[in-house]
Amino acid sequence: MAELPIAAVDRIIRKAGGQRVSESAAEELADVLEEKGLELAREAVELTEHAGRKTVRDEDIRLAMRKTE
After folding, report:
1. ∠ CA(23), CA(24), CA(26), 5° rounding?
2. 2, 5, 10, 15: least CB-packed within 10 angstroms?
3. What parts of the sequence cross the membrane (predicted)?
4. 8-17: long-range contacts, CB 8 A cutoff, minimum separation 24
5. What is this structure's pTM?
6. Tens-digit pLDDT string for the chain (69 aa)
């Protein structure tokens, strides 16, 4: 089970235009988002280490996002 709050994921689906959202749909999206988020975070950490830093910055996340597309 994902660590993301189901209520927050529900709101994301509603912002995308969903009128009604089943709990299982919100849970599934939370799992997918967590999986993709971990992939993105791992790439950002690699970029951070390559730059000789310990702190992951917003630009590391953006660059990782471009690399994983």
Report:
1. 65
2. 15
3. none
4. 9/33
5. 0.85
6. 679 999 999 999 999 999 999 999 999 999 999 999 999 999 999 999 999 999 999 999 999 999 988
